Amino acid sequence: MFHWLEKHPFFFAVGVFLVIAFAGLIEILPNFAQASRPVIGTAPYSTLELTGRHIYIKNSCNACHSQLVRPFKSETDRYGHYSLSGEYAYDRPFLWGSKRTGPDLMRVGNYRTTDWHENHMKEPSAVVPSSIMPAYRWLFTNKSDIETAYAEQLTVAKNFGVPYNKPVSMKDGSSKTVKMGASVAEAKSIALEEAKVIAADMRDQDVKDAVANGQIPEIVALIAYLNSLK
Amino acid sequence: MDIAQLQAYGYFVLITLLVLVLYGYIYHLYSKRKDADGVDYESYSNMALKDDIEDALVSAIPDENVPLEGTKKK
Amino acid sequence: MVNRPLEYDYTVAKMFMLTTVVLGIVGMLIGVILAFELAFPGINLILGDKLAEYTNFSRLRPLHTDAVIFGFTLSGVFATWYYVGQRVLKVSMAESKLLMSVGKLHFWLYIVVVAAAVFSLFAGVTTSKEYAEFEWPIDIGVVVVWVLFGVSMFGLIGIRREKSLYISVWYYIATFLGIAMLYLFNNMEIPTMLATSPAGETGIGSWYHSVSMYSGTNDALVQWWYGHNAVAFGFTVPIVAMIYYFLPKESGQAIYSYKLSLLSFWGLMFVYLWAGGHHLLYSTVPDWMQTMASVFSVILILPSWGSAINMLLTMKGQWQQVAASPLIKFMVLASTFYMFSTLEGPIQAIKSVNAIAHFTDWIVGHVHDGVLGWVGFMIMSALFHMAPRVFKRELYSKSLMATQFWIQTLGVILYFTSMWISGITQGMMWRAHDEFGNLAYSFIDTVTVLHPYYVIRGVGGLLYLIGFLMFAYNIYKTMSSRPVEERELQNATPMGA
Fold first, then answer.
1. Residue contact B71–A7, C-beta within 8 A
2. Structural domain count of chain C
3. C280 contacts on A by Cβ (under 8 Å)
4. Given a contact as 3+ CB pairs under 8 Å, which chains touch C?
């Protein structure tokens, strides 16, 4: 059999494929049903938060910041409770990262505020002396793409049953309903309402003016996302 | 029997099978030393060393008109 | 064909040699810029505040990894396939018009996809999954290019004269299959433009955006099954294919044990795929998977060292060649670095070591001694060996090669030693507690302490880039150096002063 394989490229290729596919079959498939169930207290991303998540991805924040707290004392002391699988149920894609050039952001919403982020994004070393993070000033002028986030909400609600417009239970026993618009116009107005809350805590006059005029600078959406990480 | 138990038995059988295949292969390579056409495996190296287009072949495809699948199994 | 004797046709190989050199320079240059941005953050603004978005570390980082993986390395793999494939199968591409046009189409589509990828990454269009950043339109392009590569490979195998497949061909086939499987599964995604709102609107938002079919932990699992094995089938398997051809050919020595090469092949194929989970130790993937990934990572030393030792033993009794030929030096050092990084990787995959190493620069160091030392050196030596044969001229300068060798070796050593120290320092500082059980260092303390190592790493990377430019110049000048006879090209490559 071995001789024969070596001289029959097609069957050889089939053999190689079986050998390499074997591990994937065994390792990956069995986990699929289990891991994607959300834990209590995990709600889907709102329109603005999801927009912010896109901005996080667009700027590859995950190149330097992880979103995974490992179960060590040193990590739970620094970042909070270690990560649970169900907390990531609505993360498409996952953003665990592979390098901590900067600190973990899994629960950054618990200990950083809107104005902290605003100052930090404008000039990181003004907030954290000798920080090596570059400034992200273009976020204050670029406008967010709400429509794409809305399209993503529609896609995940339809294909993966993500519970938008449905109550999800929270840790304190209450329930929370994350709204998704019925049209692009409604999605935009929902996002703008969220943006106004964020902008109220910000100092930058240009950002405030933009939000007052119905526009959402990227920084507002990004902060909404960062505040949602808890 | 639940699915996890079935999986566990499945893995065990597969792993055993693969170990047997691997050792079978090792035994085969070192006991036979030659492939089905009687070519010593070690002379396969000549495929790289004598690779000009007119160089002698290590083992030629017998007849270009016969399709590959028609060649004999070992 | 009637009048001229049949010759190997290296047209497509030459085209890919060009992109190997060009994309190598691009990828390494971006790498050096990134390294210095970490050491001196001011460089993020190197082209001014207006263009800061495009010169920023985070925007450039995927460009660096993708340019090196899918630009430099993959071009090198294609270039060597279109060279080695013909020779070990003893069939010329000139014999089939069809294969020739498939090969050329393969090249030009590859160029189109590379251009699209560069453009989209600069614009920040990314899925964020490492080495799978491309959005779905580019993914489709990648798949088409890959299928063409497959057609061209199996087409050539189909018309071969040599009945058995040389071990390098085995590895090339595995590269093709492995990447195909991994890429398809990891990039399963739904374009969001397909969504319809309750109000009946369609085609909402940007047309190229998509959402992953997997979520959270599953997405991570699939991604690192891909991420780790893209390294396996991009950085290991095809590079082993190269060294199994080029080292014996250049030194004129038969492979030490051909049987060992066959065994290592199957071992590598089987074991490698299990190890992907070692990127997810102490994460939320099930424990049994983490443990299995650790165990298989350690087992992986065996087939890896099987190949590497086989290569070093091929030089048995011929070590004077290492001193005499810079080309042999490159290849021997490449297989040494292969041994080194396939030992280092499993060590990092042990759970207790990983607890310190994960998320630190030590991992970055590991990747780079593999890629700079093993992949880079091997691809450069392959091109050094091929250039005189495709151009029918002697290599322009031997002394330039020797200088390049030492400059780059120094560069790699500076790179990985600084990253070791930096990674372990940071890993230890993160976990340090004072006598009262409080964290001993704030996060920024663990960043500022790394500054000197970041500078050393930048210098190491710069040295490697300088060496690569010398390589590019040497290859360029070879095109116009002294013509040589066919018989001079039998084994050792002819080199000018």
1. yes
2. 2
3. 96
4. A, B
Q: Which of residues 192-221 of A touch C (CB under 8 A)?
A: none
Spell out the residues 6+ positions from residue C418 whose beta carbon is closer than 8 angstroms to its own: C365, C453, C454, C456, C457, C460
Q: Measure CB to CB from residue B11 to each of A2, A10, A26 and give the nearest one.
A: A26
ipTM for this prediction: 0.93
pLDDT digits (tens, 9 = 90+) for A42-89: 999 999 999 999 999 999 999 999 999 999 999 999 999 999 988 999
Residue B24 counted as domain residue: yes
Same domain, A221 and A183: yes
For tokens 């060798």, what's the residue? C405
The whole-number pLDDT of residue A33 equals 61
* Residue C371, domain member (yes or no): yes
Same domain, A14 and A56: no
Quote the CA–CA distance of C381 and C401 in Å, as a whole number.
Answer: 10
Residue C327 falls within a domain, yes or no?
yes
* Domain boundaries, position A202: 47-228
Q: Determine the distance in angstroms separating the CA of A3 from the nearest CA of chain B, rounded to an integer.
A: 6
Regarding whether A52 and A27 lie in a shared domain, the answer is no
Does A78 contact C444 at a Cβ distance shorter than 8 Å?
no
CA distance A39 to chain C (A): 12
Report the candidate in A63, A68, A96 with the shortest Cα–Cα distance to residue C65.
Answer: A63
Return the H-helix or E-strand segment holding C190.
Answer: strand C189-191
> What pLDDT, on a 0 to 100 scale, did the predictor assign at position A11?
86
Final residue of a structural domain among C164, C195, C230: C164
Are C263 and C246 within 8 A, CB to CB? no
Domain for residue B25, yes or no? Answer: yes
Model confidence pLDDT, tens digit, residues B10-56: 878 888 888 898 888 888 888 877 777 778 888 888 888 888 888 88
B vs C: CB pairs below 8 A = 79
Burial of A201 (0-12, 13-18, 19+ CB in 10 A): middle
Compute CA A31 distance to the chain's CA centroid, rounded to the nearest angstrom: 22
10-residue stretch averages of pLDDT, chain C, 497 residues long: 76 96 97 96 90 93 95 96 95 92 97 96 93 94 96 93 90 94 91 92 92 90 90 91 95 91 90 89 88 91 93 92 93 94 94 95 95 96 95 94 97 96 96 93 95 97 98 95 86 85
Please check the confidence at residue A111 and state whether its pLDDT lies above 70: yes
The backbone torsions φ and ψ at residue C42, rounded to the nearest 5 degrees and listed phi first, read: -55, -25
Asked whether the beta carbons of residue B42 and residue C164 sit closer than 8 angstroms, the reply is no
Q: Based on the domain organization, do A6 and A113 belong to the same domain?
A: no
**Residue where one domain finishes, among candidates C141, C164, C187:** C164
- B22/C267 touch (CB, cutoff 8 Å), yes or no: yes
Residue in chain C lying closest to A3 (CA): C164
Q: Is residue B55 part of a domain?
A: no
Place of tokens 């609107």: C201
Residue B73 has pLDDT above 90, yes or no: no
Cα of C152 to nearest chain B Cα, Å: 18
Q: How far apart are CA C12 and CA B73, in angstroms?
A: 35
Contact B44/C258, CB-based, under 8 Å?
Answer: yes
Backbone angles phi, psi at A176, to 5 degrees: -135, 140
Residue ranges making up the domain that contains C13: 1-164
Distance from CA of C254 to the nearest CA of B (A): 5
Question: What pLDDT does residue C3 have?
Answer: 60
User: Mutual orientation of helices C136-158 and C74-89 as an angle, nearest 10°?
Assistant: 10
Q: Which residues in chain C are closer than 8 Å to A184, comparing Cβ atoms?
A: 197, 199, 201, 204
**Pick from A62, A87, A183: CB nearest C201:** A183
Contacts with B28 from chain A: Cβ below 8 Å: 2
Contact B61 C162 (CB under 8 A): yes
Question: Looking at the domain assignment, is residue A41 inside a domain?
Answer: no
Nearest CA among A12, B47, A1, A18 for reference residue C158 = A12
